[in-house]
């Protein structure tokens, strides 16, 4: 077990990749604080973690609220005494051509994906600095390295996360805190289900979700859509001392897809 006696917070861990990260960290021995806007789902994830014999806490926190994030940090410190690992994962997406995009959709993506990353990492970094150690992992995206029609706002937010992580890594290196981002490709979650449906609607002419999924697989050199567990293995590695000499990196987990457009 690589993470015994470590305490991890995972944001957006009620479902999808965040849930897979929470379970994978627990399987390596970590105490895991599962946090999301959806308290019902994080309580369910917490129950699954308890069944693994690990310590856990479920906390409702919206990453766009400094007050709720501060509360998440305080509850974690009260129960476990320290925060060793942060996985800043909470994120959203939507699809719209720029010329049709209301400002609300731009703000929705920016506020949760980019400003939420700032709010959560800032609150946790303050505590990690006191202990002069820690691992911060931010979930960006392959979208943080390229561009795509109908997702300018999402791609801009994820480019922001990649750049933010590179900069924060430089600021925290002297406190022996590593900061890396992970850039997943097409991963089967509820976010992807929504995006596949929207893509079919935008394309029109009878396009189906099944066809869009087949295209996603065909565009992926390894020939399949990724599973949350594919990404969780990389997150566990970055959270462990095996990655002690890595910081400021943006690691692709894309099945070989390289989005450089
Ligand atoms: N699925 C993919 O193909 C894919 C690819 C690349 C990157 N990502 C990124 O991975 C992360 C996880 O995505 P997913 O696919 O598991 O999505 P998902 O929609 O399945 O799960 C996201 C979780 O985040 C929570 N959340 C949303 N807004 C929140 C907020 N303001 N505060 C706290 N929690 C909030 C949701 O309730 C949900 O539980 C996101 O940052 C996403 O942008 C996803």
Describe how the helices and strands are arranged.
Layout: E1 7-11, H1 16-27, E2 31-36, H2 39-51, E3 56-60, H3 66-80, E4 85-88, H4 103-131, E5 134-139, H5 152-172, E6 177-184, H6 190-203, H7 209-218, H8 228-239, E7 250-253
Parallel strand pairs: 1-2, 1-4, 2-3, 4-5, 5-6, 6-7
This protein binds nicotinamide-adenine-dinucleotide (NAD).
What can you tell me about this protein's structure?
This protein has 8 helices and 7 strands, in the order βαβαβαβαβαβαααβ. It is an alpha/beta fold. α5 links the parallel β5 and β6 (177-184). α1 (16-27) crosses α8 and α6 (190-203) packs across α7. The structure holds nicotinamide-adenine-dinucleotide.
Question: How is this structure best summarized?
Answer:
The protein is 48% helix and 15% strand. By secondary structure, it is an alpha/beta fold.
């Amino acid at each position: 077990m690589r993470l015994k006696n470590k305490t991890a917070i995972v944001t957006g861990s009620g479902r999808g990749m965040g849930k897979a990260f929470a379970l994978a960290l627990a399987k390596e021995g970590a105490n895991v604080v599962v946090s999301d806007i959806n308290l019902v789902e994080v309580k369910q994830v917490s129950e699954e973690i308890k069944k693994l014999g690990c310590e856990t806490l479920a906390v409702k926190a919206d990453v766009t609220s400094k007050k709720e994030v501060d509360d998440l940090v305080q509850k974690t410190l009260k129960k476990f005494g320290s925060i060793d690992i942060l996985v800043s994962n909470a994120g959203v997406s939507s699809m719209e051509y720029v010329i049709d995009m209301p400002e609300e959709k731009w703000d929705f993506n920016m506020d949760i994906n980019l400003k939420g990353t700032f709010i959560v990492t800032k609150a946790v970094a303050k505590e990690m600095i006191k202990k002069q150690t820690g691992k911060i992992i931010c979930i960006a995206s392959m979208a943080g390295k390229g561009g795509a029609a109908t997702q300018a706002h999402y791609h801009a937010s994820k480019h922001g996360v990649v750049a933010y992580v590179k900069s924060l890594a430089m600021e925290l290196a002297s406190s022996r805190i590593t900061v890396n981002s992970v850039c997943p490709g097409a991963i089967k979650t509820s976010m992807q289900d929504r995006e596949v449906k929207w893509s079919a609607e935008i394309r029109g002419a009878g396009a189906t979700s099944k066809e869009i999924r087949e295209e996603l697989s065909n565009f992926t050199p390894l020939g399949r859509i990724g599973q949350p567990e594919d990404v969780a293995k990389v997150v566990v590695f970055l959270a462990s001392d095996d990655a002690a000499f890595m910081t400021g990196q943006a690691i692709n987990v894309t099945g070989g897809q390289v989005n450089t457009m």
